[in-house]
Amino acid sequence: MIFKHLLFSLTLATSIALFADDKPNIVLIMTDDQGYADLSIMGNPVLETPHIDSLARDGASMDTFYVSPVCSPTRASLMTGRYNYRTRLVDTWKGRSMMEPEEFTIAEALGEAGYKTGIFGKWHLGDNYPMRATDQGFQEALIHLGGGLGQPSEPRENNRRYTDPILFRNNIQVQTKGYCTDVYFDGAIDFIDQSVSAKKPFFTYIATNAPHSPYHDVPEALYQKYKNKDLTPVLLGNTEDADTVARVFAMDENIDQNVGKLLAHLKAKNIEENTIVIFMVDNGPNTRRYIGLSRGKKNEVHDGGIRSPFFMRWPAQLKAGARSDRIAAHIDVMPTLLEAAQVSLPADHPFDGRSILPLLKGENPNWPDRSLVLQIHRGDQPTPLHHIAVREQRWKLVHPTGFANERMPADIPLELYDMEADPGETNNLYESRPEIAKRLMQSYERWFTDVSSTRPDNYTPPRIILGTENETRTTLSTQDRRVTESGGEWLLEFQGDHTYDVEFLWKEPVENLTLELQIGTQRETLKINRPTDEARIQKIAIPAGETSLSTRILKGNPKHVPYHIILIQ
C-alpha cells in the first residue's frame, strides 16, 4: 500500500504548480434512501425542498442519472469511478461491504493535489483498518460506522439514536449534540472554515444516513408538519403507512434546511462562485411512495430503484438551468470532479466512468451512446444475469430476480423497455425486439467478464488488519462477520507477533454462560457465572499471518452471542 500513490504523485507536480490558485472547492452531498422524486422540483406534490431545488435552477442537471439499487455499491463506485464489482464489494453487510484498500479514491487523488479532504456522515466501505475513510484519503472524518445509526456497528450505548448520536471523529468515539444531519452539516461547515483559513481548496463529502430507517427519531416539528398533511398523493396503493412517510419527509426537509444553511455559509464566506456543490442520492426510496413516472423502489432494478437526481452548481463555470438528457451514473462522478479540479490520473488507472463535465457545461461534445450496467444481490459473489439492469440511451434490459435472493430464481423472465416511449417500464418488448435484447445481453456479458477479472482473486473479501500502529483497538461487529455453516467468522490478518486482550460486550447482562473463542487453531474458553454485560480474556499471544476469528456458545443460551468483540493490542 505504501507505493499506491507514488506514480500519481509524480504526475501531479506540474498541474499543482500551474493551477494551485484557481482550483474549485467541492461539496458533494449524497443522502441515504431518499429516492429520485423526494424533491419538490421533481414533481413531489407534498414535500418541500426549496434549497435543494435551487441547485437545479442555479446549476446544471443530468436528467437521467443512475446509481446502484442499494447503498454500499453506489458508495464504492462514487469513491473510485469504477464498478463496485472491481472493488471486491458485493453486498452491504456480512463482511462483503468492505472495499479493497488498494482502490484509489477521489479523496486520495484530491488530497495529493493539494486539497483538504473531509467526510461527514456515512462511509460504509469498511469499519476497520485499512478500509476506514481515514485510510482511504480523508484527512478529517466525522462519521458513524457500518450502514447507519441503529445498525450493528454502532456503540451499544448509542441505542439507535439519531438525536445526540455517538459518532467517530478521526476514529475516536465522540458524543455529539443535535440531530445527526445537523451534526454532519455543522461539522462540514467547520471544516470548510478551517480550509478557507488555511487557504486550501477543499473536498467536503456530506453523506447523510437520513432518511434511512429506523424512523422513530426524526425532527419533531417537521414530523408534525407532514403528519398533519394529506399524504394520499404520495402513497402508492396503500403499501406504506402515512405515518412512516411523514417521518421520512421530516428527515428529507431537515436535509433541505441544512443545504440552505450550507449555501448561505458559502455565500457569506464569499466562496460560492468557485465552489462546486453536487446533490445526489444513493438509491431509490426506502418505502413504496411517489416516484414520478418511474416504477420501483430501493433494492429494485427498475428505474425507481436506481435513478438519482444529479444537480451540480458551479457559478464560475456552469450556466444556470443547463440540462443534459444523456445517461450517466455514479461511476462518472470521480472523473468529472478530477477534470473540474484539473487533476489527471496515471494512464494505468482505468475508470469505468467518464467525465460528464462537457455535458454539464452544454458544450455538445461528440458523445457516443454507451451501456451502463447495474447489478447487486445478496450473497458471497455475483451470479451472472442475477438482478441486473443494462441501460443504453434509448433501451433498457432488466432481469428483476430480486436483491434479497442469494440464488437466482429460475422463473423470472427478462424484460426490455424503450425508455423514450415508455419511461414507466410497462410494455415489455423482449420478445418483439430480439435484436435489441441480444445486443444488450452481449454488452452485459462483456461487462461481467471484464469486471470479474479485475484481480486474480476478484471476489475474495478484504481482510481486517491488526498488529499495526494504525489501529490498536479493533472492534468486530456482525456487519463484517462472514456467514459460515457453523455460524460466522471474521477474516483477519495479524501483522507481527503480538499479545491481545479480547473483550466481549453484550447489550444485556448474561450469566451461566460458557463461550469458546477460536483464532486460527487457538481456542480459549470464557466462563461467566454472575450477570454481566462485558467480559475479557487477557494476554492471548497471536502470531502473524492470515486467520479467522469465531465464537461458539458451549453452555447457556445460544442466542447470547456477543454484540461486539474488541481486540486490544
Protein architecture, described:
By secondary structure, this protein is an alpha+beta fold. The chain has three domains: 25-360, Alkaline Phosphatase, subunit A (3-Layer(aba) Sandwich); 372-452, Arylsulfatase, C-terminal domain (2-Layer Sandwich); 464-568, Sandwich (Jelly Rolls), CATH 2.60.120. It has eleven helices and 25 strands. It has helices spanning 6-19, 50-58, 71-80, 106-112, 180-197, 220-227, 242-268, 303-306, 333-340, 357-360, 434-452, and strands spanning 25-31, 60-66, 116-122, 140-144, 166-169, 172-175, 202-207, 275-281, 307-308, 311-313, 323-329, 372-375, 388-391, 395-399, 415-418, 464-466, 473-476, 482-484, 487-494, 498-510, 513-519, 522-528, 532-542, 545-555, 564-568. The strands form four sheets. Strands 1, 2, 3, 4, 5, 6, 7, 8, 9, 10 and 11 form an eleven-stranded mixed sheet that branches. Strands 16, 18, 19, 21, 22 and 24 form a six-stranded mixed sheet that branches. Strands 12-13-14-15 form a four-stranded antiparallel sheet, with helices on one face. α5 packs parallel to α7. 50% of the residues are buried.
Please give a quick description of this structure.
This protein is α+β, with helices and mostly antiparallel strands. The protein has helices at 6-19, 50-58, 71-80, 106-112, 180-197, 220-227, 242-268, 303-306, 333-340, 357-360, 434-452, and strands spanning 25-31, 60-66, 116-122, 140-144, 166-169, 172-175, 202-207, 275-281, 307-308, 311-313, 323-329, 372-375, 388-391, 395-399, 415-418, 464-466, 473-476, 482-484, 487-494, 498-510, 513-519, 522-528, 532-542, 545-555, 564-568. The longest helix has 27 residues, at 242-268.
